[in-house]
Amino acid sequence: MKDLLYISHPLIDEISANIKKKKYNYPYTKLILDRSIFIPKTAYLLDENPEISSFKIKNIQMVEKDIVYTIEGNIEKKEVYLKIDKKARLKNLYYNTAFYIFKAIFYQFYNNKNISLSIEKNKSRIKVDNFYENFDLKAFKELFEKIIKLGLDINIEEEEIFIDGFERFPNQGVFLRNTKYLEGIYVFSLEKIEDKLLIDFIVGDDYLKFVSKSMDLIEYIKNISTGDLDSSEKITKIISAIQNQKY
């Protein structure tokens, strides 16, 4: 398949495609399309709920150079309509891109490739196994933020992804084209458990929402502090505002 649009145009969430090959074997049909926005199944990325003309996809697998889709039922038309969950795609884009940068940094500075990602509702978690070094979070964040601010091109090939000067890694899932689109990074927590390093963080739209809410909170506290309430009432309101602050 030449038109793997999830590589060249990862923001597309709806598009039509033509069936190149089809094999129906009750109750399933296997399809090969002329182009696709669907990513092959990747365990750590969010399910994007892909559909082919309203048929739920049971399986997506890469067979040589083609992506083979298995659906339940039979499609008679030659043209089909592809659709994914846009919110899930955006989250996968941001956090999978950040995941690559984490891997590149940890490999370059700690010679460690034992890194995994889990994407959660309000944040994501990086786990680094077999990590025996002293980890400087401040220096790490400064480097990560510099990579974002420099706006480095992310080179995406069919089989590999890389930033010039950093290690190449297998191309799995979807990625942004430039580091600047990550906007920034905020680390909620850092925990070291024996030989495991756990980092909870946000990037992209999640980061922008967090910063916006934080600025609103600061302005709210500022208004309380300069108001006419007595000290105890101010403290009570400030504590309440902080406790109710949710990302």
Question: Any overview of this molecule?
Answer:
The chain has 247 residues and is of the alpha+beta class. Helix content is 32%, strand content 32%. The protein contains five helices and 15 strands. A six-stranded antiparallel barrel has the order 2-3-7-6-5-8. Strands 9-10-15-14 form a four-stranded antiparallel β-sheet. Strands 11-12-13 form a three-stranded antiparallel β-sheet, covered by helices on one side. A hairpin with a 3-residue loop joins β11 and β12. α4 packs antiparallel against α5. The chain starts with a strand and ends with a helix.
Order of helices and strands: EHEEEEEEEHEEHEEEEEHH
Walk across the major sheet and give the strand order: 2-3-7-6-5-8
How many strand segments? 15
Largest sheet: 6 strands, antiparallel, barrel
Q: What's the N-to-C terminus distance?
A: 41 Å
Write a concise synopsis of the structure shown.
32% of the residues lie in helices and 32% in strands. By secondary structure, it is of the alpha+beta class. The protein is globular, with a radius of gyration of 22 Å.
Provide keyphrases for this structure:
single chain, 247 residues, 5 helices
List the helices and strands and how they pair.
Elements: E1 3-4, H1 5-8, E2 14-25, E3 28-33, E4 35-36, E5 51-52, E6 55-63, E7 66-72, E8 79-83, H2 86-110, E9 115-119, E10 124-128, H3 137-150, E11 155-156, E12 160-162, E13 169-170, E14 185-193, E15 196-203, H4 204-225, H5 231-244
Parallel strand pairs: 1-4
Antiparallel strand pairs: 2-3, 2-8, 3-7, 5-6, 5-8, 6-7, 9-10, 10-15, 11-12, 12-13, 14-15
